[in-house]
Amino acid sequence: MAFKKHHFIIVVFVLFLIGFVGWGAMKTSLKLTKGKPLSTAGSDSQSLPGEKPVTAETKESKETPSVAPPTAESGPILVRAFKVKTTDFRDVLPVMGTVKGKTEIELRFEINGVIKKLFFREGEKVKNGDLMASIDNKDTLLKIDYSRSRLNAARSLYNSAAKKLEVNQKLFEAGAIIKSRLEEVALEAESAKYQIETARAEVALAENELNKTNLYANKDGVMGPRDKEEGEFVTPQDKIARLLETGEVLVEVGIVERDIDKVKLGQNAIVYVDAYPNTTFEGKVDSVYPIVEGKSRTLTAKIKIPNEKGLLKPGMFSRAEINICELKDALIVPATALIPAGGTYMLPVIPAKSVTVSPDDVKVGTVELRKTAVGYITSDYAEITSGVEANDFVVIETQGELRDNIEAKIIGIEELTF
Q: Is 39 contained in some domain?
């Protein structure tokens, strides 16, 4: 029984092996025959009635779609154009800043003292020469009295010395004294004379110090906040108040580094403040600092503005527009229409003289790629100085290949709106 069982296992294994090899051979055969023609021109196989025999070529044509060869454009391309006109063009640089007085003077006493009286209020308009404040002048008056007394004493001493000199002069002429004695008396008289000059200087110094006990406005303007009050002791280092000259004001603005080369002295500017939203203030760039300051890396420029009515107050926040370019009767086109070409620019122009109107009421013209000269240019617009004329059209958008001497149908026209 064991022997028969052993033979049975061998037979089953051989049958399994034969079946596995046969299945593999059939699979390989199917892969090799895949994609071969079911029939060829020389084969005996027949196709179905009304059906074209399938070949390798016909199968490939079914899997790969046919591509028609390119043909020349049969009509004009479609474009959007910009109509060129002469216009006054203005390019502005928007900036922000703060209003300041034309001059801001710190008022200080020149001598030490106690403030006796303040004669101004904050924000009050004052005139040149108005008395602003005074300090206690008792000590100064005493100095004047003392110096005048010394002057009187010096005069008396000089008169005495002069008479003594006169007597000695007569004695010397009579031979009663020697010459050295006369010279000695003359020197005493001269010394007394110099003492008079010294005393006079002391009087003048004391009187000048008296004048310094009063503080005067040295310009027309508006008083700023008071820093000291009556009764306080002050020195020349202490600021009493600030005088702001507001007949003209300056607007300090910050210019970022990339715009520094655009700002020049004398450029016109328009300033706006929130206090008067419907009012504009015109001025000019008065000064430009020579260095870039601070962490903001900005350059400070000052715009001078007349302020006769006093509407602009120091400290106001302001917005300004600096006119960095003003052009009269210029030909302006969108900067995006320019085509860089080795250091110069090309411009797709449709001359006005070439434009006709089609039966469907659409303008049609011929595109010319022209070499142009560009004057002033911004990120949005460019001034064309040659290569285009007024009423010509410049292509700004196209549907189709843009090339020289191609016919174009203008489906949209844009113009400057400012």
A: no
Q: Among 302, 327, 352, where does a domain finish?
A: 327
The SS3 call for residue 20 is helix
Tokens 């004047």 sit on residue: 144
Domain span holding position 149: 109-216
Quote the DSSP letter at residue 75.
S
Output the CA–CA distances (angstroms, integers) from residue 344 to 157, 339, 370, 375, in the order listed.
95, 8, 11, 12
Cα radius of gyration rounded to whole Å, the chain: 52
336-392 per-position pLDDT tens digit: 999 998 888 999 999 999 999 988 888 999 999 999 999 999 888 999 999 999 999
Same structural domain, 297 and 383: no
Same-domain status, 211 and 113:
yes
Q: Name the domain count of the chain.
A: 3
Burial class (CB within 10 angstroms; exposed 0-12, middle 13-18, buried 19+) of 2: exposed
pLDDT for the residue numbered 74: 54
pTM above 0.85, yes or no: no
* Per-residue model confidence (pLDDT) at position 246: 86
